[in-house]
Amino acid sequence: MSSLTFAVQDATTMLRRNLRHAIRYPAVGLGSALMPILMLLLFVYAFGDAIGAGMGGGRDAYLEYLTPGVVIMGVAAGSMSTSIAVCSDMTGGIVNRFRTMNITRSSFMTGHVLGSVVQTMACMVPVVGVALALGFRSGATPLEWLAAAGLLTAVAFAVTWLSVALGLISKTVESASNKPLLVQFLPFLGSAFVPAGSMSPGLRWFAENQPFTPMTETLRGLLSGSEIGDNGWISLAWCAGIGLVGYVWSRALFRSTTKR
Amino acid sequence: MPSSVMPTPRRAGGPQPLVAVSAVGLRKSYGDRTVLDGLDLHIPAGSVYALLGPNGAGKTTTVQILSTLVAADGGQARVAGHDVATSPDGVRAAIGVTGQFAALDDLLTAEENLLLMADLLHLGKREGRTRARELLQRFDIADVAHERAATFSGGMRRRLDLAMTLVGDPQVIFLDEPTTGLDPRSRRTMWDTVRSLVAGGTTVLLTTQYLEEADQLADRIAVLDGGRIVAEGTADELKARIPGSHVRLRFTGSAAYECAAAALPHAARDDENLALRVAGDGGPDALRTLLDRLDAAGVRAAGLSVHTPDLDDVFLALTGHGTTGAGTSLRTKETLR
């Protein structure tokens, strides 16, 4: 068997381990699904009329605007939970055991990333389901749904790699669970909940240029038929950039750190 | 590091090297703190070798370097015929490591932990299951095979940990303080397990803070202090170098005490406690002679106890500075855990 075969086998073994954790302890996964669902309900029923009116529509129009934003936020937040799992492994003894075994070095991280992406994507199914139940209607073709899923997977991959690095630099599980907050709330300062154009000038500049805005706009375009323009390519470029930084950083950290 | 995935066959091809572990001049510092200061080791294949020393002596660092977890700053080491620095994957394929802190997946069951190891060793489904079943039986955890490791007691965790280490049938096993924090019964079980490993031809390097443990298990013992080996030999050889064995005699009245002191002029006096300290190994013959001399003087001792050297004595004798601080921490650690 070739080294690639072993690399795939080891990554699959690690993936299976992480998926088993996710199924056995669904709390993290449930949280990843529940938070966006609560956001949907809160923003539609509590603020929907007001914001919708402000944007020149009603509650239904706002639901259509909001759903892609909440889904992007859900994917970002769900992906960030990886750092807790990574840090918890690093502070326990199991990683040192893996390191003294003749296995593909990267498989520990690959397993976490793949597991997290699968889990995050699975969590988005009930979120979209609730949006549909609330009255969200998409005119998207199957191809557009597929593209939407592809975009979300790319976002999940990128953010998860970053999350792995944050998990590796965390000394304790508590600090690992705090670090992701920044990324989780970044979508608020973009076009996820209200158009960036409605914000104050300084914030608007930030909102228009931060990574989650083009992602949100691309998803919105795919699901609601609004103009995507350059946002698609910009999103993919952001995903590639964030993912690459996260990957290279994680790899360097994993090589250099030996935690007890 | 793509080469890292090339499998090195386990226990295959040719005889095992006669020397399982060798190290020359290993050095390691963390910042300006020197942890290993030129360590030499020579462990014959199929033997149990104990590294004995207090906390901070460099035991764990030695194991970390030999098991490829940490790179040495200087010196060379070979494990199972592979250089630790240039062929770490060869080393990894030949070793098993059980560290101070149980390295198991708390969220998985005992059986799943073992199967995880089997999968990572590419054993194949059937062989993996067979191996897991064998080890669950052997380590007396078959009845809790389907319970999560998080629910296990300290002793069970160590047993599962060691079972995981053995899934790959390693040639060389590193046990870093395998019994620290275990109750006496679990400690005995662990000792029996180590003995059975060696009977199977495995080489074991174990670190311990307990002289008794090294005495019970090891063919050879190296006493580690300040990152250097200060003495090396069999348990008997080491003990012979350690003075400090003595018999302590206690008396009820000062008359008897003075009378005994006159009969045993070489004894050290402890006037406050009316006790005499007689140097000697406390063997049956020596004791009989001692009691005969008391009889001849017409004195009866109220109490007699034989003191054998403990780790503190070993250190005092071998290093001249004792285990100041370390000695106390040994004890506190033992009681705290």
List keywords for this structure.
heterodimer, A: 260 residues, mainly alpha, 13 helices, elongated, B: 337 residues, alpha/beta, Rossmann fold, Alpha-Beta Plaits, six-stranded mixed beta sheet, four-stranded antiparallel beta sheet, 12 helices, 24% strand, disordered N terminus, disordered C terminus
SSE arrangement:
The complex is a heterodimer of chains A (260) and B (337).
Chain A: H1 3-24, H2 27-46, H3 48-54, H4 59-80, H5 82-91, H6 94-99, H7 107-134, H8 142-169, H9 173-178, H10 181-185, H11 201-209, H12 212-224, H13 231-256
Chain B: E1 19-30, E2 33-44, E3 48-52, H1 59-66, E4 74-79, E5 82-83, H2 88-94, E6 95-98, H3 110-120, H4 125-138, H5 154-166, E7 172-176, H6 184-199, E8 203-208, H7 211-217, E9 220-225, E10 228-233, H8 235-240, E11 246-250, H9 254-263, E12 268-270, E13 275-279, H10 284-297, E14 303-307, H11 311-319, H12 326-336
Parallel strand pairs in B: 3-8, 3-9, 6-7, 7-8
Antiparallel strand pairs in B: 1-2, 1-4, 4-5, 9-10, 11-13, 11-14, 12-13
Helix pairs in contact in B: 3-4, 3-5
Low-confidence stretches of chain A: none
How many strand units of chain A? 0
Cα-atom Rg of chain B, whole angstroms? Answer: 24 Å
Number of domains of chain B: 2
Helix- and strand-based class of chain A? mainly alpha
**Number of domain modules of chain A:** 1
* Percent range of helical residues of chain B: 25-40%
Annotated CATH homologous superfamily of the largest domain in chain B: P-loop containing nucleotide triphosphate hydrolases
Based on secondary structure, the structural category of chain B is alpha/beta
In the CATH hierarchy, the architecture of the largest domain in chain B is 3-Layer(aba) Sandwich
What is the makeup of the main sheet of chain A?
none
Percent in strands of chain B: 15-25%
What fraction strand of chain A?
Answer: under 5%
Organism (chain A): Streptomyces tropicalis
Protein name (chain A): Transport permease protein
Keywords (chain A): Antibiotic resistance, Cell membrane, Membrane, Transmembrane, Transmembrane helix, Transport
Pfam family, one (chain A): ABC2_membrane
